[in-house]
């Protein structure tokens, strides 16, 4: 069953949930409304992708600090992508000069997600607190790029921000400030428990006034209280609540924002799905010079190619090289 609910100040939440989807593999849109009129004043998203993070990380032998960061990046990517309308791929990619060189996660418009981290295995292990990734400590200096690629028939849009803050959410909020110029608050976390990984990202954003991106002065004056209350309430959420597998996204929305007339919409699914393309791999192999191909052949005369994302290993013979 998928549906909507509204909860007022003194009401009990209607039992209407997105129970056709796993609670730990979805993005839940919601908004907070003016109580009297139902006019949306704040929009939000909760991405809960613990199941996806568990299956992705199971294929990678990452140290704990790397796994925590990758899981959090997956949740953040799912959350941010759901605020955009696109038919293609949304990508979060960070480059650093510290222990982590590349942090990557992407998702399609249908919710197919993948990710990987490239890091210096010889560098010292960073021991973050559960659910907290200190970017300067683990990535050093660098930048984060947010990209929307709509494929051959569409455009490609990218925003780049410096890794100035201590957490992933700082880069996300800087991106929103630069690209949409709307007040936005973001939080994210990850952790590993007895039942696997949990990874959650939440954001709220001030609703723009009609006819423009930025709220008018009158809107700001009228709705300041609601926005600041929403930010305060979101800031009060505990890491344990975000990582609690027993609390569904709908329940968390009501728990946090029940005084602000919360509404939820149908959730969007998120799945672990790689986009390996054998034809592209073969095309690359055909471009190799003979001496380059010889260096890659194993004892059986095959070239082994392993996908960085899903770790699927494929073997190609010389017939592919010959074209």
Give structural notes.
- The protein has about 325 residues and is an alpha+beta fold.
- The chain folds into 2 domains: about 5-270, Hsp33 domain (3-Layer(bab) Sandwich); about 280-320, CBS domain Like.
- Helix content is about 30%, strand content about 30%.
- The chain is built from 10 helices and 15 strands.
- The strands form 3 sheets. Strands 1, 2, 3, 9, 10, 11 and 12 form a 7-stranded antiparallel β-sheet that branches.
- The radius of gyration is 22 Å and the shape is elongated.
- Residues about 1-15 have low confidence and may be disordered.
What is the CA-CA span between the terminal residues? 51 Å
What name goes with the CATH superfamily of the largest domain? Hsp33 domain
Radius of gyration based on Cα positions? 22 Å
Number of strands: 15
List keywords for this structure.
single chain, 323 residues, alpha+beta, Hsp33 domain, CBS domain Like, 2 domains, 7-stranded antiparallel β-sheet, 6-stranded mixed β-sheet, 10 helices, 15 strands, disordered N terminus
How are the SSEs placed, and which strands pair?
Elements: E1 5-6, E2 26-33, E3 40-48, H1 50-57, H2 64-81, E4 89-96, E5 100-108, E6 112-119, H3 135-139, E7 142-149, E8 156-162, H4 168-179, E9 184-193, E10 196-206, H5 217-235, H6 239-242, H7 249-257, E11 262-264, E12 268-269, E13 271-272, H8 278-286, H9 290-296, E14 303-306, E15 313-316, H10 318-322
Parallel strand pairs: 6-13
Antiparallel strand pairs: 1-11, 2-3, 2-11, 2-12, 3-10, 4-5, 4-7, 5-6, 7-8, 9-10, 14-15
Helix pairs in contact: 1-2
């Amino acid at each position: 069953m998928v549906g909507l609910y509204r909860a007022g100040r003194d009401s009990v939440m209607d039992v209407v949930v997105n129970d056709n989807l796993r609670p730990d593999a979805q993005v839940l849109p919601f908004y907070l409304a003016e109580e009297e009129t139902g006019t949306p004043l704040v929009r939000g998203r909760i991405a809960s992708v613990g199941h996806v993070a568990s299956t992705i990380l199971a294929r990678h032998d990452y140290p704990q600090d790397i796994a925590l960061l990758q899981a959090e990046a997956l949740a953040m990517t799912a959350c941010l992508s759901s605020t955009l309308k696109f038919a293609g791929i949304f990508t979060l990619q960070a480059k650093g000069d510290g222990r982590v060189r590349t942090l990557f996660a992407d998702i399609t418009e249908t919710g197919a997600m993948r990710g990987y981290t490239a890091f210096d295995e010889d560098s010292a292990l960073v021991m973050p607190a559960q659910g907290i990734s200190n970017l300067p400590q683990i990535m050093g200096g660098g930048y984060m790029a947010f990209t929307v690629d709509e494929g051959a028939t569409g455009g490609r849009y990218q925003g780049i921000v410096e890794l100035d803050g201590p957490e992933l959410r700082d880069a996300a909020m800087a991106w929103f400030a630069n690209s949409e110029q709307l007040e936005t608050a973001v939080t994210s976390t990850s952790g590993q428990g007895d039942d696997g990984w949990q990874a959650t990202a939440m954001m709220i954003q001030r609703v723009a006034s009609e006819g423009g991106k930025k709220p008018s002065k009158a809107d700001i004056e009228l709705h300041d209280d609601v926005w600041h209350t929403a930010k305060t309430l979101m800031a009060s959420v505990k890491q344990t609540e975000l990582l609690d597998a027993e609390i569904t996204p709908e329940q968390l929305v009501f728990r946090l924002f029940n005084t602000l007339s919360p509404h939820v919409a149908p959730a969007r699914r998120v799945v672990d799905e790689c986009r390996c393309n054998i034809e592209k791999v073969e095309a690359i192999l055909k471009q190799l010079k003979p001496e380059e191909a010889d260096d890659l052949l194993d004892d059986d005369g095959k070239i082994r190619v392993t996908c960085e994302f899903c770790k699927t290993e494929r073997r190609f013979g010389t017939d592919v090289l010959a074209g």
